[in-house]
Amino acid sequence: MKSIKNLLLIDDDEIFTFLTKKTIENTQLVDQIKVFGNGQDAIDFLENAADNTELLPEVILLDINMPILDGWGFLEEFILLKPNIGKKITIYIVTTSISPHDLDRANNISEVSDFVIKPVTKTGLVNMLKNLPLE
Amino acid sequence: MKKDSGVKYTPLDLENAYQQALDKTAIVAITDLQGRITYVNDKFCEISQYSREELLGKNHNILKSGYHSREFYKDLWDTIKKGEVWRGQIRNKTKTGGYYWVQTTIVPMTDENNQPYQFLSFRLDITKQKLVEEQLAESNNRLSILTDNFPNGSVSLIDPELNLLFSGGAGYDAVDFLPEDVIGRPLEKALSPETYTYILEHLPRILKGETLTHEIFVRNRHYLNTYKPVFDQSGVLYGFVMVVIDISESKKAALEIQRNNELFAIGEEIARIGSWDWDFLTNEVVFSSNTLRLLGQDPAVVKRKSEEVLEWIHPDDRKMLANAFQEMLDKNAFDVLEFRMIRKDGKERIFQSSSTKNFPGDGQRTHVIGILKDITQERRSEKELLESKEILSNIADSIPGLVMRYMEFDKGKAQIQYVSKGAEALWEIPKKNILLDVNIVWNRVHKDDWAGFLRSFAKSRKTFTVWDYEFRIVMDDGRIKWVTAIGTPKKIQEDKILWDILALDVSARKVAEEKIEKNLELLTFQNTQLLDFCNIVSHNLRSPLVNMAMLIGFIEESADETERKIYIDKLKPVIEGLSETFEELVESIQIQQDNEVSSEYIDVEESFRKIISGFEGEITSSGAIIEADFSEAPFIYYPPKYLSSILHNLVSNALKYRSMERRLTIAIKTSKGDRQVFLTVRDNGLGIDLNKNRSNLFKIRKVFHRHPDAKGFGLYITKTQVEAMKGKIWAESVPGEGSTFFVAFNNQ
Asked: Of B72, B96, B125, which marks where a domain is finished?
């Protein structure tokens, strides 16, 4: 059995999600990968699956720059939702942003475990998925 | 003669003896109840100088001297008519008009009912005694009058044993006791120890008959004391008189004269004044020593010959002085003269001489006296003051601005005391006009600056602090100058303020400042755009690059040709997207850099109609209602290309993000502001949650709707086009109800 059952990939960039999904599948570390094109869709999913640990992800890879609800907006909603979620979820920000301002902002949100700048290599992904922070 | 009851039982011989004795010593008379004389003895006749026949039957009042009052006689009669004995002293008149004093006893003789029926009077002659008494009283009175009015001192009579027999005088006003307190007591009690000591020391000489005088200073006053022995008629010394005279006032006056002379001399010296007295008969001048000191001459030799004095006068002024003096003597009118004199050390000094005639009693003129004043210092100071005033005025005139001093009175009136030449150039008003009325200066103040000007000026006037204000002045031809003014108010009187005002032309600086301000604005704006650009690079350019890099990595690793084909196919849209973004960026940068783009007055209605025609298909298919009202501001001064683009984007968004639940209405209108035109585009479409998206609303590649055509470029380019022309764009929106976009076009 794989160590990660569910992983959410939240990014509006179709090329990136296609390639990343493929890379993760190749690592054989994740059972199921769900892709959402914006923050709002992901929040809607989490809200519905809040009491279903089978569906809830262990890991979220989150883009910042997205339509409708961007990464920051998602994190705000997620913090509100968190008390109702019966599972520990590790969130990585995966973004093209090289702005120090964005890095600072991410560091100030305790729900964010790491800030990863694209592109993400296969090795990088394996490290992220194998070294999930402990409870 | 009737017998009274008291002697009824006395033997007759004894009675006769009594009567004889009485007749010999006393003046006896009997009167009836009305006062008529019924009996007089010889003594009565003798003293009154009337014969018995003349007196009998007459009323006793023929002897009345008129000395006593009516009350005196009333008392007498009231007493005896009651049957009581009256005693008293009466002054009576003799037949020849002389008078005599009698000690009188009147005994009423009463009947069985105790009613008086006649009066018996016994009188003793006391005239001599009375006379002495009167003389003594008179003498005492006179002495008192003398002593009480004795000015500035006292007179005292002292016996050889040094008892004070008598004393008086105004000098007692100065001490805290009265003559009565010391008369009859030892002298020691009444005198100062100093005076008493002197008397003790000199008593033998006084008692030998010497008259002594000495001055003494006691109780802060000067006294002159004189001691003169007094002898009675037989030449026996019975004491001495001490006369004390307070000479403090005269002493002080003498001292004052002395002091005044000293002060006068000091005054002369301090005031650089001297006096002179020219006797033109003897041709001599008498100088005060200070005059000589002022002239550097020997102050001890006060009398000089006229010829010598003439030598001291500056050669150039001699003739003038001589003429002036002659004229003054002729006209008998003396004036102030100013001339130069040469000191003995050769130094030249300027003097002022005021003189006046001095006539001896009969009016024959013999000399002129005068005051000589060294005014060299004053003249020098005046000259320096004049020079420094001139320098200041020159400086003030050379300032390229307004320098002004004026007195402001209550009720806003003002009197100008000085205006610099520079005022003419700056204010473009002739100096003489400004001098007439200060309001001419302030009338130039720009109307938009007037309120602030008045406020700051009033504050300064109220608090007496420096007035500092920058304002515009408007020239006759409408040109505007920027002026910075500094004014200091000085309170002269309750309702008088002296203003010193300096105003300088700062138009050039103002222009520079405005330029800097503009540049700063531009820089800030560009800085924001740069930050935006950084974000664009970060998100919108890096993303496709990252994707390309990843795809190439996959292509390189892939062994399967089909798989590689898939990756290569995926590269295409990435590159297309990148190039699209790139083109958009170039376009926005072009707008930002397009300084040359020129504005013109655009008929909004016309421009709008063209845009609507481009959307006709969409409007028809969606059944949208367009409400346009440009009546309030039919024209916008703007680059036509930008305005079309702005209108196009806003209308396009409204159409694109319409709600499927209701019929779309787009309301477009223009309105006027202060040199601004506002464009409002309101729709009843999907709306945007501004709480989440406000900061991203106008950013590139930000989309807020799940609409396939949402690219996040329209509002970004609109904002760029608005801001490029210094305008502003903002929005209000409620999700599910609609959005309103506002555009402010500036500099209209």
From this structure: B125
Query: Residue B569 domain-assigned?
Result: yes
Q: Which of B98-102, B260-264, B470-474 has the least mean pLDDT?
A: B260-264
- For residue A96, the chain B residues in CB contact (below 8 A) are 538-539, 542-543, 546
Closest Cα in chain A to B688? A68
- What are the structure tokens assigned to B32, written together? 């009836």
Q: Judge whether B390 lies within some domain.
A: no
Instruction: Assess whether pLDDT exceeds 80 at residue B366.
Output: no
Contact A16 B706 (CB under 8 A): no
Look up residue B398 and give its two tokens.
């050379």
Of residues B549, B692, B696, nearest to A119 (C-beta) = B549
Closest Cα in chain A to B542: A96
Token pair in block for residue B437: 């009325």
The CATH number of residue B371's host domain is 3.30.450.20
Q: Which amino acid is at B124?
A: L
pLDDT of residue A134: 60
Q: Is B692's CB within 8 Å of A65's CB?
A: no
pLDDT at A63: 92
**Domain count of chain B?**
6
Q: Taking the model in full, what pTM does it have?
A: 0.41
Domain A4-130 is of which CATH architecture? 3-Layer(aba) Sandwich (3.40)
- How far out from the chain centre does Cα B615 lie? 84
**Does the pLDDT at position B4 exceed 60?**
no
Query: What is the domain range of residue B81?
Result: 5-125
Structure tokens belonging to residue B537? 């690079």
Residue ranges per structural domain of chain A: 4-130
Distance in Å, alpha carbon of B701 to nearest chain A alpha carbon: 8
Residues B696 and B630 in one domain: yes
N-terminal to C-terminal alpha carbon distance within chain A: 20
B131 domain residue, yes or no? no
End-to-end CA distance of chain B: 155
Q: Do residues B608 and B708 both lie within one domain?
A: yes
CB atoms within 10 A of CB B180: 10
Residue of A68, A70, A97 best to disrupt the B interface, most CBs of B under 10 A: A68
**Least confident piece of the model among A62-66, B41-45, B129-133:** B129-133
Taking an 8 Å Cβ-Cβ cutoff, which residues of chain A contact chain B? 13, 15-16, 18-19, 22, 38, 64-65, 67-70, 73, 96-99, 118-119, 121
Query: Residues of chain B whose C-beta is under 8 A from some C-beta in A?
Result: 534-535, 538-539, 542-543, 546-547, 549-551, 553-554, 570, 573-574, 692, 696, 701-706, 710, 712
Give me the torsion for CA of B168, B171, B175, B180, rounded to 10°: 10
